[in-house]
């Protein structure tokens, strides 16, 4: 199953992840408006971004339905005949799964909008309900009814729609009009683009790097790809634990950095706490996430050859996972302070160097372990770059004039 889902995951799930820039833009804009005590503007921004999210979701569904199999086959490579056959079958089922994306993009926008209002319980309840519905639906449709991957897709779609409506009701209870969709003007699109474009570059760079990592493993044969995909899936499950640190920074930092009651000292203290929590979380999740595939690989596969490939990358896997939560906290702070140009340029540089190293390893060494060490370089480079920017005396946490409207106006003049 890992072998089948590898290229399919890269195309379908990573395509969805690229459009996470909408969630980041929503959280950033809503948190900033509320920090400036402007609830009317926050309402308008939520309505506008809901319309954009729904539009993108429908567009993603149509693109995947029409071009999904062709792109997946091109990615897999003409030499890997055994993978192509399985991947094509997987893609046919996954086209149904992509029908959830319109609901996913909408619920994701509402989700981070609520988080921008510093309300974590509403999204938590909605996601808990969605998880239960998805789990029960998977068991009933896949095991009882025998619908296979199509049943899993329908269960996911229903759970996402339920989550979206629950979070919209949460917004309504807070006095917002969650079911109000507003078509953005040209000026509003430009404003959203100024925030979303650098974030899009950042998200695309991360997605492209992980796609290249899987592409490099694809060229090493079916067994190597299967072991790689198992470890990538475990890595993705573990990195989720760092996302709350990024959301916390994006929800609380705007008020401290440039809100009505700005306080850079408190912002620095919050960042220090987030980085410390990230270090503890990275060590804990990294240790547990490494011990499980090391000592209990049968939970994922019974193929000894695949297990051997998994064990080859355990050390770089742990090293990359160790720093990931701290990276989330640092990059979340950069997003909150709208230091977007630096973030996108830094990510672009890390991606370019990482891509060069990946292609070099793939062509010269054909080693899965070395490919994962390139991932370690990518993660730690992001950490070092973001940390250096935030502790700089001219950065947002030390410079009183950083990114302030008056300062920007003087510089422009």
UniProtKB/TrEMBL annotation:
It is a multi-pass membrane protein. Signal peptide: none annotated. It is found in: Membrane. Keywords: Membrane, Transmembrane, Transmembrane helix. One of its GO terms (molecular function) is antiporter activity. The keyword ATP-binding does not apply. Its main location: membrane. The chain crosses the membrane at residues 14-34, 46-67, 147-168, 274-296, 342-361. It comes from the Eukaryota. PANTHER family: PROTEIN DETOXIFICATION 44, CHLOROPLASTIC-RELATED, PROTEIN DETOXIFICATION 46, CHLOROPLASTIC. Belongs to the multi antimicrobial extrusion (MATE) (TC 2.A.66.1) family. This is Protein DETOXIFICATION.
């Amino acid at each position: 199953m890992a072998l089948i889902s590898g290229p399919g995951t890269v195309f379908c799930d990573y395509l969805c992840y690229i459009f996470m820039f909408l969630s980041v833009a929503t959280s950033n804009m809503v948190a900033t408006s509320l920090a400036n005590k402007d609830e009317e503007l926050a309402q308008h921004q939520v309505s506008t971004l809901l319309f954009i999210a729904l539009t993108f979701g429908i567009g993603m569904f149509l693109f995947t339905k029409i071009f999904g199999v062709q792109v997946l086959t091109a990615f897999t490579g003409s030499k890997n005949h055994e993978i192509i056959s399985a991947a094509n079958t997987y893609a046919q089922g996954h086209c149904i799964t992509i029908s959830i994306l319109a609901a996913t993009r909408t619920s994701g926008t509402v989700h981070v909008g609520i988080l921008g209002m510093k309300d974590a319980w509403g999204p938590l309840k909605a996601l808990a309900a969605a998880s239960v519905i998805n789990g029960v639906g998977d068991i009933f449709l896949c095991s009882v009814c025998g619908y296979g991957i199509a049943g899993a897709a329908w269960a996911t779609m229903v759970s996402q729609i339920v989550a979206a409506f629950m979070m919209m009701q949460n917004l309504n209870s807070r006095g917002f009009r969650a079911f109000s969709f507003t078509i953005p003007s040209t000026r509003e699109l430009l404003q959203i683009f100024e925030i979303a474009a650098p974030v899009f570059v950042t998200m695309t760079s991360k997605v492209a790097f992980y796609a290249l990592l899987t592409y490099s493993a694809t060229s090493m044969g079916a067994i190597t790809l299967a072991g790689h995909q198992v470890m990538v899936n475990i890595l993705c499950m573990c990195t989720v634990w760092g996302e709350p640190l990024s959301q916390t920074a994006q929800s609380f930092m705007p008020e401290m950095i440039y809100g009505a009651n700005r306080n850079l000292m408190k912002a620095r203290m919050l960042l220090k706490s987030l980085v410390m929590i990230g270090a503890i979380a990275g060590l804990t999740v990294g240790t547990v996430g490494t011990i499980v595939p090391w000592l209990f690989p049968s939970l994922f596969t019974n193929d000894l050859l695949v297990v051997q490939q998994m064990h080859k990358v355990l050390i770089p896997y742990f090293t990359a996972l160790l720093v990931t939560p701290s990276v989330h906290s640092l990059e979340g702070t950069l997003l909150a302070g709208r230091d977007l140009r630096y973030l996108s340029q830094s990510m672009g540089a890390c991606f370019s160097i990482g891509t060069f190293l990946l292609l070099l390893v793939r062509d010269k060494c054909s080693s899965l372990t070395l490919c994962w060490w390139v991932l370690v370089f990518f993660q730690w480079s992001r950490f070092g770059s973001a940390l250096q920017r935030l502790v700089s005396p001219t950065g947002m946490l030390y410079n009183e004039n950083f990114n302030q409207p008056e300062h920007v106006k003087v510089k422009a003049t």
